[in-house]
Inverse folding.
């Protein structure tokens, strides 16, 4: 879901906007560092990868099968580069 943002993302975005408005544009040194810190933290989270999302939760009865497939990781609809080294065979 590209349009869905976590509560943490929303909170960091709010802090970053406040930091830019009050620190960069308003001249407050403390708010400037809040803006820098939140911007850095958001970029690090994006570089590390997207958060895990629970897509199914339920009980299995005896005889039922659950198949797990891997989907490409995305961050707001954009593909995230793999953090693992490619294995050559």
């Amino acid at each position: 879901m590209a349009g869905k943002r976590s509560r943490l993302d929303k909170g960091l975005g709010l802090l970053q906007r406040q930091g830019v408005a009050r620190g960069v544009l308003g001249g407050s040194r403390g708010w400037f560092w809040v803006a820098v810190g939140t911007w850095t933290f958001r970029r690090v989270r994006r570089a590390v990868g997207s958060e895990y999302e629970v897509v199914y939760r339920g009980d299995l009865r005896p005889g039922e099968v659950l198949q797990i497939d891997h989907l490409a990781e995305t961050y707001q609809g954009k593909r995230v580069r793999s953090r693992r080294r490619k294995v050559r065979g």
User: Anything to note?
Assistant: The longest strand covers residues 74-75. The first helix runs from residue 7 to 24.
